[in-house]
Amino acid sequence: MSRVEDRLSELGITLPQSSPSRANFLPYKRSGNLVFLACQISEWNGVPRYFGPVSEDYDLA
């Protein structure tokens, strides 16, 4: 186990299994200090949790 996995285990935190890929694409592309995301969805244990664009009121910084 890695240090991160050990620490999560100590804290009693269990992460869900990652979902299988639904398409053949690069999930992100880094250009300098920018990261461009493509087709990412928020899933927890295989169930989508959040939908739609990020609101202008939400600070991504």
Overview features:
61 residues, alpha+beta, two-stranded antiparallel ribbon, 13% helix, 25% strand
Descriptive overview:
With 61 residues, the protein is an alpha+beta fold. The chain has one domain. Helix content is 13%, strand content 25%. It has one helix and four strands. The strands form two sheets. It has a two-stranded antiparallel sheet. A two-stranded antiparallel sheet has the order 3-4. A hairpin with a 2-residue loop joins strand 3 and strand 4 (47-50). The longest helix has 8 residues, at 3-10. The protein is extended, with a radius of gyration of 15 Å. The N and C termini lie far apart (31 Å).
Number of domain units: 1
Number of strands: 4
Which strand order do you get reading across the main beta sheet? 1-2
Mean pLDDT, all residues = 80
Show unreliable segments.
Answer: none
Distance between the termini: 31 Å
Query: Counting H and I runs of at least 4 residues, what is the number of helices?
Result: 1
Give the radius of gyration.
15 Å
Elements, N to C (H/E): HEEEE
Roughly what fraction of the amino acids lie in strands?
15-25%
Structural class: alpha+beta
Specify the helix fraction band.
10-25%
